[in-house]
Amino acid sequence: MADDDLPTSNEVILATGRHLMIGNDSFEIIDRSDGVRYVDLFTEATYMNGVAYLSMGSAIYEFGNPPVVEVSTRVRMSMVAVQNLHAMLGNIISDAHKPPDQSKAN
């Protein structure tokens, strides 16, 4: 870890206690995010030199003010990460469209 990656006195790092296995390595999951952001628009979607660039935002409509898009997050991903994201989103969409299992209802 480089000195630039070390937390400052004002930075909060949440150790989740959860781990992600990749091959034989166990990575502890930590959370340095500043919370959950709602996303309903894409402001950037580009691919260059093996890296996908995605920026997402949320539309804000306030009475008396012009509408704006607040950028919620910017991510840069390798093609492997993009393919994994594609597969995960496909699974989420597929599961969301499955009818509920009536046999497990009350």
Explain this structure to me?
With 106 residues, the chain is of the alpha+beta class. The chain has one helix at 79-96; strands at residues 14-22, 25-31, 41-48, 51-60, 68-78. The strands form 2 sheets. Strands 3-4-5 form a 3-stranded antiparallel β-sheet. β3 and β4 (51-60) form a beta hairpin. The mean pLDDT is 84.
Q: In a few lines, what is going on in this structure?
A:
By secondary structure, the chain is α+β, with helices and mostly antiparallel strands. It has one helix and five strands. It starts with 13 loop residues before the first strand and ends in a 10-residue tail after the last helix.
Helix content: 10-25%
Number of strands: 5
Number of discrete helical segments? 1
Strand content: 35-45%
- The best one-word shape is extended
Instruction: Record the strand order, biggest sheet.
Output: 3-4-5
What string gives the helices and strands in order?
A: EEEEEH
**Major sheet:** 3 strands, antiparallel
SSE topology sketch:
Elements: E1 14-22, E2 25-31, E3 41-48, E4 51-60, E5 68-78, H1 79-96
Antiparallel strand pairs: 1-2, 3-4, 4-5
What descriptive keywords fit this protein?
17% helix, extended, 1 helix, three-stranded antiparallel sheet, alpha+beta, two-stranded antiparallel sheet, 106 residues
